[in-house]
Amino acid sequence: MCTKNLLYYSLYILYLISFVFALDLTKTQTTNPRVCIIGAGLAGLTSARYLKEEGIKFVVLESSRYVGGTWRYDPRVGYDENGLPLHTSMYMHLRTNLPKPTMELRGFPLPDDIPSFPSWKIYYNYIKNYTKHFDLEKHIKFLHKVVLVSRVNNIWKVKYQNVLTGEEFEDEFDFVIVGTGHFSKPNMPNIPGEEKFSGSIIHSHDYREPVRYKGRRVLVVGAGPSGMDIAIDVAYAAKTLVHSHHSKINFRPVFPKHYIRKPDVKEFNETGAIFNDGSYENLDDVIYCTGFEYYYPFLDESCGLNLTPRSVTPLYKYMVNIYQPTMMVMGLVIRACLVVALDAQSRYATAIIKGNFTLPTKEEMLQEWQKRADVIISKGRPISDIHFLAEKEDEYYAELTKESGIDRVPPVMFKIRVTDTEAKLENLYTYRDYNYTVIDNENFIRTLDNITKNNSGNSL
């Protein structure tokens, strides 16, 4: 072989080696992988179920002594018996705000005889039955809090602590699934004059029942799902219900006479609040329904994520850590059938871990993420909107299936959510009176007072 050809051959070998190393940046298939699942809520339980079915070794680390995460009602607020923050945001009268078909986990139907919009108690029992049916508890280390997750020498090191004894442990894993959700750290608005106000101020995270507000003048701040739900719940007991928000959503129900709509709060004083329109209301109590922060204090910089209270970036397909694709962050999608989305994400994550498909390169995943980010920025919207699915929900499920080969989430789920959203706009007091029945992957019927309608709203 001549010197020139030898040089070309050597350069070609070097190119191949560099190409292989580049591929390793997004290579996720590992022989006999070991997986750490953080949290035993719905994200953790569904992930555990599918990993178990594939014979993949895993452990679930859960800081409390319970499964179900935020779905478990606890009358206490603040901290539990072990001094840890209570993660649950359930309140006594809560019912799901999505109908039964969209709350089912794949292959484990909700009972036929339960209401179309079940209470937290019914749904929490369903979660416990799911855990028992798939024999998941033996894989869960209860009362073990994750302290630190770091990437060291191409492996995940997870440090965790026994919350009763304080003893610390550190194990190594090939994959990490973060399933702690984002409904546990309240987002507090910090409005001027709060310290002057003589009444009570709480976040919806600590709201439990309306009886404490009987005959009182209550301000509810925020018009998201919890804001609208809690405003209605409190209005049954309160003397006056003042509702402050800037939502552009056109809710059309007839609220009770003691319901007062207000713009954003400008400031508080000792006895009440001044609003942006200059009006004033005397108040006894304030409930902030202002959402939650993204909060993952156990993830260090080596994880490669940009963590802010409003967003987690960059994520491929709303879940895969682009810079460290052996980490998946579950359930961050907004305006979607969250239970359905979690189940699909858990199956997608399992397919990654099993090696059923290969993720795109880091550059390709970043390009896909940046394209979505650019659209949001061009509309003058905050980057937190990067987690919104909304009208793209069904398209998202189709993409997960096309790439990974998992079973397709039926389009009927998205159609039900769209119809349910319209029912909410029509009347927040009556939308839960509808019953939804799935006919096939594309169609459903809904019934109300013995009137049956198809998914176009036409009477049958």
Shape: globular
> What's the arrangement of strands in the largest beta sheet?
3-2-1-7-22
Q: Would you give the CATH topology of the largest domain? A: FAD/NAD(P)-binding domain
Q: How many structural domains in the coordinates?
A: 3
CATH architecture of the largest domain: 3-Layer(bba) Sandwich
Strand percentage lies at: 15-25%
- Coarse structural class: alpha/beta
Distance between the termini: 81 Å
Cα radius of gyration in angstroms = 24 Å
Q: How helix-rich are the residues, as a percent range?
A: 25-40%
CATH class of the largest domain: Alpha Beta
Care to count the β-strands?
Answer: 25
Q: Mind describing the biggest β-sheet? A: 5 strands, parallel
CATH superfamily of the largest domain: FAD/NAD(P)-binding domain
Which whole number gives the mean pLDDT?
91
Sequence stretches where pLDDT stays below 50 over 5 or more residues: 1-27, 456-460
> How many distinct helices?
8
Structure description:
With 460 residues, the chain is α/β, with parallel strands linked by helices. The chain has 3 domains: 34-185 and 292-409, FAD/NAD(P)-binding domain (3-Layer(bba) Sandwich), CATH 3.50.50.60; 188-288, 3-Layer(bba) Sandwich (FAD/NAD(P)-binding domain); 413-454, no CATH class. The chain contains 8 helices and 25 strands. A 5-stranded parallel beta sheet has the order 3-2-1-7-22, with helices on one face.
